[in-house]
Amino acid sequence: MGVPRFDLSLSDLQSYRPDVAEPDDFDAFWAATIAEARAVGGGMTVEAVDTPLRTVDVFDVTFPGFAGDPVRGWLSVPHAADAPRPAVVEYVGYGGGRGLPHERLSWVSAGYVHLLMDTRGQGSRWGAGGQTPDPHGAGPASPGFMTRGIDDPADYYYRRVFTDAVRAVDAVRALPQVDAARVAVAGGSQGGGIALAAGALCDDLVAVMPDVPFLCHFERAVGLTDRDPYQELVTYLSVHRAAPERVFETLSYFDGVNMAKRATAPGLFSVALMDFTCPPSTVYAAYNHYAAERDIRVYSFNDHEGGAAHQWPEQAAFLGARV
């Protein structure tokens, strides 16, 4: 049974462009973070995997992420590709991992090189698992990932994840199978929020495709939905009653709205108007601040599943027109 719409009307959403707190040193913080990760360096390994797939070559990739930590991914390449191809780097939804290589074949079947990044520390809530640990930790946190290290932006969990996302783009651009000038990023929910960050922090992407993105307009989200993962922040703040100012200051460095303001590549969003997990106004807050060419697909009667399988052909057409 469906749930009623609970957020702004579509006409109000289309003009919803809220002021979201942005720290003065936002750009300096991220420039230093990415520079530090790149300076650490570290080697990438690409190992062929024997699978039943006959039209796709699969590789188990490990590349250096935040602090040089090893991050895993599945690299899928059209079999016997005879020239460098455009690539899509994809990020995973909250709690999931990279799973198994035969689970995500759409992009490679369409002729793209596809890198699916494992999310550090996740991969044990749904799907077929993840294999990338997060060796860092700081301070008290509520269960989940949203409040890990939230006392300080430098220690916050998503600083590591967003840095991994940039280094995933760096890694795929270094592959001989890839045309480094034709790389796009994509993801749904948490993966969409990570894609927005990668779009802000990577140069010269050809497209950014966040699907029902999470990690946008935190202050509105926590007052609008009682669902996890945003509810993890509410739980934390209900215990740490003096912490809201500090918490939201930390989150401002990671807000998808502030990332969207720095977009340079064309963006294709999706939103679901009955989405209680990532409320539509939080998605539109990022979309309406998106600084580059943008478009959005609206699913009026859907919850957080959004367009599901209907959205990928929209993304494929959007990207195909730009590569």
TrEMBL record:
It comes from the Bacteria. InterPro entries: AB_hydrolase_fold, AXE1_dom, CE7. This is Acetylxylan esterase. Residues 5-319 form the Acetyl xylan esterase domain. It holds the Pfam family AXE1. Residues 124-145 are annotated as: Disordered. The lineage of its organism: Bacteria, Bacillati, Actinomycetota, Actinomycetes, Micrococcales. Coiled coil: none annotated. It comes from Microbacterium awajiense.
